[in-house]
Amino acid sequence: MIAQSKRMRNEIMESVILHVTRSIGGRGNKPIGMQMRHFCLFTWICMCFIALDWISVAQGYQDYQTWNLPEGAIARFGKGGISEGDKVIAFSPDGKLLAVSTEIGVWLYDVKTTQERALFLGTEHSFFRGAAAFSPDGTHLATVDAGGFKLWNVATRTNVLTVHSHAGLFNSLAVSPDGTKLALAGREVKLTEIETGKTIRVFAGHTDWVNSVSFAPDGTKLATGAQDNTVKLWEVDTGKNIDTLRGHNDEVKCVAFSPDGTTLASSSMDHTIKLWDVETGKYVDTLGRSASTSITKQVLWSVLGRITNSGGHTFWVDTVAFSPDGTTLASGSSDGTVKLWHVKTGKNVGTLVSFGGLSNPVAFSPDGEIIACSSDRHGAVKLCEVATEKTIDTITGHISSVNFASFSPDGTTLAAAYADEVRLWKVDTGRKITSLKKAFMGSVQSGAYSPNGAQFAVGLWNGKVELWEVSTGKIVGTFAGHTDTVNDVAYSPDGTRLISGSDDKTVKLWDVLSGKEITTLNGHTGEVRSVAFSPDGSKFVSGSEDMTVKLWDVSAETEITTFKGHKGEVSSVVFSPNGLTIASAGAEDKSAKLWNASTGEITATLSGHESYVNSVAFSPDGTKLATGSMDDTVKLWEVSTGTNIATLRGNNHWVRDLAFSPDGTKLASASAEGTVLLWDLRHTVD
Questions:
Q1: Non-local CB neighbours of 88 within 8 Å, separated by 6+ positions
Q2: Counting beta carbons within 10 angstroms of the beta carbon of residue 552, is it exposed (0 to 12), middle (13 to 18) or buried (19 or more)?
Q3: With contact defined as beta carbons under 8 Å apart, do 476 and 500 qualify?
Q4: How many CB atoms lie within 10 A of CB 624?
């Protein structure tokens, strides 16, 4: 589409140039003034086309992929994984917007079109906790952030107040019905004046972390649910603990008042929802009494997204929400289901959706006609019609944690592993081309393009290596032999061999064409984290939890030497493009090392990160090395001198993998927050 529009623009410009040129020079009897006017018009049109060409380049990416980017980044692929908590999703009071809390911040969506409207980023280097609440008039949005909160103007998309606290992280928040106060739940509950950010009072009494907080509709009471298995009711004006509600056998995940304020619902890790009389504090009913289910079955059902035949949930109940008329209660559970309950009878009256995942937050629209529910595993938010129990729309893109990133050999495509799928993106437009996945592929731990770009190999948690045909998305080979997670895979330069490193402490060499195992190389005493071929394919290197780097001979199928020097796990290894140097990331060392590939001598130790170093990558010309760390930063180093020449900041969680584009102008950083940042190195490094 972009190429077509450029061709059309060029054709139009050629036509305009021809017409104006003829007007200026083709008729000698034209007045000079008219010729000058034509020349000015010609100049103005040319400038417009230049501007249009620049805009077309800037608009190559989808708008939301360029919102709030850090300096040096040109695009963000992925939207961040959906957070855990009781207020992960929230409708605006007029029902037109939906806030979705993720591991990078809060996204606003248009409910009618499901289009992105805004991204409110969390504080840099803070793993976003995931809670958001609209003010009663819908003009502002409050978000939990880095041990405090932020207040945003919804109309202008600007941050109007940031308050930091030294009381630790907060799990939940709630805005008072009059919009003047904010309750923040963490190790304790703080009541804050929204206009100034000042703490009014502290509600202390729970013996463990508070997971959820909610105001009564009249604003006089506050309910809290905590990890100490209790629910507490508080008097807002005095901070007095009115009552402590006991009955759950495990931590309380969520509390919610009915619209008339007479009933309180609480959900728990004990698989149940309990109803309480607010006035008396007495227990009323338990929704979702179900037969006990083994932990193994619970986890399996969660992963598979199985709908249970029982009326009750079979795993943790993460969230509850009353319908606006108070007759129905919705519950989202880690068993992968969202259920509807008739409040008066306690009967399960419907199951809206089967998601699968570890968290399924729910929220009713203000008119009660739609329920929004989300899944952290599938990275989706579904809008379901309550009356028909049917999904009417789906918001996608919020998959947690990117395990790796890899450019195609021609540099046009970027592959990134999100949970159980590999997504392929066009580098110049950010458009998702396709996903390589099947019904239950397993968690993708590692991946690599074949040298010709026709295949993509993935290492899985179940010990298998799968080969995918990129053009069709079909599996063309499965290598089985490892007995534990495959942490890394790499093709030989000629594409005929594949190596894989596993938690079973072995490295395997495979014949790509036949799919047969050539050999198993033992020698590491710890889990093998990373493998890489030399540029000529005669050797390969492996890094392990046992703190060593080993160099192997491919044809002899033997170990050449062992490099020792790291003080902890070696998380990543790679050869330089000329094959003379090996780089390794020492996780606990907080550094990377450069080794002479022939002698095993350490030629440089690159220190400067504040936490574990997870990944290393050489630039195509071998002059630079990139390192990614759990301190959320990427550092660029000059290989010849070991000098840190740039630090890229912008990932909100640890950087798991790095990849240079084949031309060396771009760098992709894959993060545990669920995004890949694409950096333009031409404007970052001289």
A1: 82, 100, 101, 130, 131, 132, 319, 359, 361, 374
A2: buried
A3: no
A4: 21
Check if the beta carbon of residue 647 is closer than 8 Å to that of residue 631: no
Tokens of 137: 């008039």
Predicted local distance difference test score (pLDDT) of residue 436:
85
User: φ, ψ for residue 398 (rounded to 5)?
Assistant: -105, 55
Total length of the chain:
686
Residue with tokens 């990416």: 61
Q: Which amino acid is residue 129, in one-letter code?
A: R
Number of neighbouring beta carbons within 10 Å of residue 336: 27
Which residue bears the tokens 């959320």?
632
Q: Does 27 score more than 60 pLDDT?
A: no
Mean pLDDT confidence for 383-406 = 90
Output the CA–CA distances (angstroms, integers) from residue 167 to 146, 417, 522, 664, in the order listed. 10, 36, 49, 44
Residue 394 to residue 371: CA distance in whole angstroms: 12
Cβ atoms of 142 and 133 closer than 8 Å: yes
For residues 600 and 588, is the Cβ–Cβ distance under 8 A?
no
Residues 6+ apart with CB under 8 A from 19: none
The amino acid sitting at 217 is P
Six-digit token string for 481: 């032999």
Q: Is the pLDDT of residue 125 over 70?
A: no
Answer yes or no: is pLDDT of 306 > 90: no
Confidence tier at 358 by pLDDT (50, 70, 90): low
Question: How many CB atoms within 10 Å of residue 34?
Answer: 12
**3-state SS class at 407:** strand
Beta strands in 537-654 (DSSP E): 539-544, 548-553, 558-564, 570-575, 581-586, 591-596, 602-607, 613-618, 624-629, 633-638, 643-649
Other Cβ atoms within 10 Å of 585 Cβ, number = 31
493: pLDDT strictly greater than 60: yes
Residue 64 is given by DSSP the state: G
CA distance 377 to 460: 16
Pairing of strands 172-175, 181-185: antiparallel
Q: List residues bridging with 613 in a β-sheet.
A: 629
Cβ atoms of residues 338 and 346 within 8 Å? no
Residue tagged 């980017």 (tokens): 69
pLDDT at 582: 98
Provide the token pair at 74.
Answer: 């040109």
Contact 180, 157 (CB under 8 A): no
Q: Rounded mean pLDDT of the chain?
A: 86
Collect all residues with Cβ–Cβ distance below 8 Å to 156 and sequence separation of at least 6: none
**Half-sphere exposure for 543 (CA within 13 Å, toward CB):** 29
Q: Residue 319 in contact with residue 360, Cβ under 8 Å?
A: yes
Could you tell me which residues come within 8 angstroms of residue 339 by beta carbon, excluding any fewer than 6 positions away? 288, 313, 330, 331, 333, 348, 350, 351, 352
Distance, in Å, from the CA atom of 347 to the CA atom of 500, rounded to the nearest integer, reads 52
Average pLDDT over residues 488-502: 98
Q: Which amino acid is at 405?
A: A
Please state which of the ranges 332-346, 486-500, 611-625 shows the lowest mean pLDDT: 332-346
Could you tell me if 391 and 381 are in contact, meaning their C-beta atoms sit under 8 angstroms apart? no
Q: What is the mean pLDDT of residues 466-476?
A: 93
Q: Pick from 524, 537, 529: which is nearest to 491 by CA?
A: 537
